Target: Ferredoxin-like protein, involved in electron-transfer
Amino acid sequence: MSYRVDTPNPNRGFPQYCAYCGGTDLFPDEETDFAWACQECRRVFSVMFHGRNDPANRPAPAPSTAEALAASLEHHGHTPGVRIP
Ligand SMILES: [Zn+2]
Model:
């Protein structure tokens, strides 16, 4: 017999400290799926991850194996794509 009514929220963040008083006595609250109740200051607050911003400088995409091989052959003076019989 299970007492759980709904499945747990896998995206619920787990704060280590209360955002207001720094207390550590926190419990999930039924206010929202992301709410936590502080047992020390009695505040209810939410912790939610919204995503990440794009980086200021994105690294160049890595070449494929064939492109890297061709660049290496060309760098060392060989002609890529020509087979020697
Ligand atoms: Zn608190």
